[in-house]
Amino acid sequence: MHLYAYAIIRVQAPAHAEDLVQKTLLAAISTVEDFRAESTERTWLIGILKYKVLDHFRRSDREKPLTDENEALMEKPERSMEQVQFWNTMSNSMTKLRTLYVLN
């Protein structure tokens, strides 16, 4: 209950808080031999959860969806590249046609 309360206060989303608590418990289970009993188990678990919350925010900053403005900026080079490819293809085709015309 303390872990969930800690997580929900920080991430403000129940589903994310639940995921973080689960990840914390899995991390604790896999590293239980590292627990030195220098603090309470709750303090140790909250310490792990703190890093899971930080990782969550780092990951969410990297995975922000594109805004309409960003999408428009991404489309512009793509359109330019398509135009370049079109004109290169057109030029190559014209060269081949001229070559065929001259040969015949």
Structure description:
The structure is a single chain. The protein is an all-alpha fold and 104 residues long. The chain folds into 2 domains: 1-64, RNA polymerase sigma factor, region 2, helix turn helix motif (Rna Polymerase Sigma Factor, Chain: A); 66-104. Helices cover 82% and strands 0% of the residues. It has helices spanning 2-11, 14-30, 41-62, 68-103. The longest helix has 36 residues, at 68-103. The N and C termini lie far apart (86 Å). The model has no long low-confidence stretch (mean pLDDT 84).
The CATH superfamily of the largest domain is RNA polymerase sigma factor, region 2, helix turn helix motif
CATH architecture annotation name of the largest domain: Orthogonal Bundle
Remind me, CATH topology of the largest domain? Answer: Rna Polymerase Sigma Factor, Chain: A
Kindly report the average pLDDT value: 84
Unreliable sequence segments: none
> What does the radius of gyration come to?
29 Å
Q: Estimate the helix proportion, in percent.
A: over 70%
Main structural class: mainly alpha
User: What spatial form do the alpha-carbon principal axes imply?
Assistant: rod-shaped
CA distance, first residue to last residue: 86 Å
What's the CATH class label of the largest domain? Mainly Alpha
Query: Strand-and-helix sequence, N→C?
Result: HHHH
Largest sheet data = none
State which percent range the strand residues make up. Answer: under 5%
Number of strands: 0
Count of distinct structural domains: 2
Instruction: Quickly count the helices.
Output: 4
